[in-house]
Amino acid sequence: MREKIGIGVIGCGAIAVEAHLPNYAADGRARLVAVADVDRARAEEAAARFGVPHIYEEYRELLARRDIDAVSICTPNDVHAEQAIAAAQAGKHILCEKPMAISLEQAEAMIAAASAAGVQLMVGFTHRFYSFNERAAALIAEGAIGKPYTVRVRFAHRGPYESWSARSDWFFDRRRAGGGAVLDMGIHALDLTRFLLGEEIESIWASIATLAHPIEAEDAAVLCLQLTGGALGYIETGWHSWPGQLGAEIYGSEGTIIVDYRTPLRLFRPEEGWQEERDFPPGGGWPAEIRHFLDCLASGEPVRPDGRDGLISLRAALAAYESHRAGRRVCLL
Ligand SMILES: NC(=O)c1ccc[n+]([C@@H]2O[C@H](COP(=O)([O-])OP(=O)(O)OC[C@H]3O[C@@H](n4cnc5c(N)ncnc54)[C@H](O)[C@@H]3O)[C@@H](O)[C@H]2O)c1
Known about the structure:
By secondary structure, this protein is α/β, with parallel strands linked by helices. The protein has helices spanning 14-25, 40-50, 59-63, 80-89, 104-117, 131-141, 174-177, 181-197, 286-299, 307-326, and strands spanning 5-10, 30-36, 54-56, 70-73, 93-96, 121-123, 148-156, 201-209, 220-227, 232-238, 247-252, 255-260, 265-269, 273-277, 330-331. The two termini are 38 Å apart.
């Protein structure tokens, strides 16, 4: 690896300008070399804002640059696989936004391409990187609430154009997005459930609806999970919701953990009652995600969440659609 890690960003919409570009720009180990977007004006705007010297409409021209070591893929879901495979073949490490792909075949091909090229493939499951979630996972792993019995994760907002500032119009197009709110928001919750409990999702049962928007894709879902350690999981997700609860609750044999994104983490134990846990650094999220990617590129340590994590949560999200369609529980293992 050269002195500074050369970075290219493919797709210059909302997630690129909110999360990737500012955090690479702020990290002295990275050098932003180029951006690419089919919408040249958007690429020019992002390049001007973050001082990026090279601009492309065709991402393959960006990949051909020898001074780029790694790329962020910040495009609509249906082109992640094609772009990640091309990046791997060009020898670039990859941070790909979630969902990593819209089919299992695509995800498997991405993992195979990265492995064949010997490059890192990370998937942007940002919620793992919030310090309160890291602390909650550590408390659970050290037995602070005993054996987890149930976990409830709620991630919902009003959708990509009201609560998030998506710049182009693919989110509601099932062919481009691969699905609706389950694949967009639910997949974060599926990954977070695995991360918090350190267990795999054994089976999933889903109920899905389109309630709040005049769209073909689903905008609300409830997912019921069975985890390998015996715990039961419940995920509520969607693009249907005005502000409300956002976070996770884990109920175990020896206590409770409540992670509410607007308050400190709370821990209940029968002998001690409620305590507010503040014993973790503030922040996390996107800055920590980008920092982890750069840390791993600098040290050669493997990234997490990696392509396999991306594949496992994609499989669970796609199984939710199958469960709803078939009206039955779907086994994943
Ligand atoms: N990790 C998170 O918390 C998080 C949050 C929001 C979005 N995302 C993910 O980020 C990705 C992008 O979402 P967004 O909200 O930024 O969307 P967006 O519509 O704001 O931006 C997408 C950009 O990609 C460009 N683009 C489209 N096709 C392209 C191609 N073939 N080559 C190059 N550029 C192309 C578009 O012109 C647009 O500028 C999605 O996969 C989404 O799920 C992740």
